[in-house]
Amino acid sequence: MPTSARRWYRIPGLLFADLVVALHGRPADGQAIVKVSDAVSFKVGVLLQPQADWQEVPNAANDASGGYQQNLFIRRARFILGGQVAKNVFFFMETENANLGKSTQPVGGTSGAKAPGTGFSLLDAVGEWRIAKAFNVEFGEIRSPVSREGLKSAPNQFMLDTSAYAFLTSTALQNQSGRDTGFMFRGFLLQDRLEYRSAIFSGFRQPGVKNSFRFVERLQYNFFDTEVYALPSYAGVNYGNKKILAVGAAYDTQGAYQFASADMYLDIPIPIGSFESTIQWQYADGETFLASLPEENTFQVEAGVFARPAKLGAIVRYEQKTFTQTVNEPKNEKRFAVGVNFYPVPKAESNFNIKVWWQRVSPKVGYSTNEFTLQFQVYYF
User: 245: helix, coil or strand?
Assistant: First the structure.
């Protein structure tokens, strides 16, 4: 079916609404949209990431290899729902069941138990009232706009997974994978090239629940193509369909806690496909407010090349975490990873792919470890 073609199917027997299912585009990249009226519609989706993993662990003395933990599990299983409920009012929701069937064995441990069913939880639950390009309101459980990496779509990126430091402050702030509850204002200025996000979140709640809220500010400027109304996340890669150069910075605070970040994202078409790169720096200090979050800096740089004729993508990433206080310096670490992606179905690169990944983690003190991962992805939304 041509991309511009659209076929409508009427489903009889429904009360209160005239439900129409619209199928458009090629089967590989089309979407099924349930349309109730001109102002009400929704679509459903699914994400499944089965994974095989070999994770090296140090021995009890932390000075030599203790062998490899081997796991067959599901990295992510998600049900997705999004759409429109009224004129200019949109929503997005998804559940998460992460690391289903994975066993994590501590050094020297003997349990060997795995998690056969961790249970689904609500990951994203956000509504957006699009009042005008320059001013919009989001509400619900929202992705904290602390960095570009934290705002990337998990099923739509070159890397096997997000950065190890993408949600650096999430646990300390009582978040779930970087999501927090509250309100956020965002808008697009200067011909949609400048995007601002200003959020008020619940953040960390102290005993008595009387402490102040959390405030996050972010600015991003797009030099070429724009990314207007990406809800709830930016694409991690566009496979040559867009030309993106985005530079951003963010500041996050609550009580004495402070966080700052700066990032650059590049995703441009090249003759064989596309080239993607992310560079990001983060600073965090929980001070007395978040004692579990010591002062630290992280740095990340990654790059990937998508070769459309070969149906392959090559990826590489370097990350490091550095603590400021001398007592925490033994926890400094560096991470290096390389991988190859295989995209069997043209124009459905995110819908179905296979990724092979090797990562080495080198702490300042202790034994460096290796990890080998094979991941399949099935995604539709």
Answer: strand
CA–CA gap between residue 236 and residue 234 (Å, rounded): 6
Q: How far is it, in rounded angstroms, from Cα 155 to Cα 352?
A: 10
- The model's pTM: 0.88
Q: Give me the pLDDT at residue 7, please.
A: 40
pLDDT tens figures, 76-118: 999 999 999 999 999 999 999 999 888 876 655 566 677 666 6
- Exposed (0-12), middle (13-18) or buried (19+): which is 307, by Cβ within 10 Å? middle
Handedness of CA 160, 166, 170, 176 (dihedral sign): negative
Q: Are the beta carbons of 337 and 370 closer than 8 angstroms?
A: no
154 residue type, one letter: A
Decide if pLDDT at 17 tops 50: no
DSSP helix/strand/coil, 57: strand
Closest CA to 153 of 67, 271, 239: 239
Q: Do residues 97 and 103 lie in contact, with contact meaning Cβ atoms separated by under 8 Å?
A: no
Residues near 12 by Cβ (< 8 Å), separated by ≥ 6? none
Q: What is the 3-state secondary structure (H, E, C) of 244-305?
A: EEEEEEEEEEECCEEEEEEEEEEEEEECCEEEEEEEEEEEEECCCCCCCCCCEEEEEEEEEE
Give CA–CA dist 148/67, Å, rounded: 35
The per-residue pLDDT for range 31-85, each reduced to its tens digit, is 678 888 888 999 999 999 999 999 999 988 888 898 999 999 999 999 999 999 9
Q: Quick one: tokens of 4?
A: 């511009």
Span 309-318, mean pLDDT? 97
Parallel, antiparallel or unpaired: strands 244-254 and 214-222: antiparallel
CA-to-CA separations, 194 to 233, 268, 313, in angstroms, rounded: 16, 19, 30
